[in-house]
Amino acid sequence: FEGNNTTASGAIELRIADLEVVSVTAPAELTLGSPVSVTYVVRNRGLVPATALWRDRVSFSATPSGGSELASVVPPLAGPLLPGESYTNTVEVTPPYTPGTQAGTRHFVV
Prior knowledge:
mainly beta; three-stranded antiparallel β-sheet; 6 strands
């Protein structure tokens, strides 16, 4: 019988970095076509350093999920980040003016 030729190790804990956007701060009102400052904070809540470089993306969107992006900015590469550490970044985003744009709620999403 050949069904007993394999076995598994014990459980292995996978320790990873876990980057989380802690906050996003932007003006409560803006004028389309004019740049605005958006500040955000990212924290590594993981158990190990985030050693690879990554890019954040700040989007101006019609939805809070960022699915309907109207404009975006990609800041320079970020990293590394030790467990428990955070960084703050501020970028300028210019929400586009398009004739016929309706008033309403929009979102900055990181």
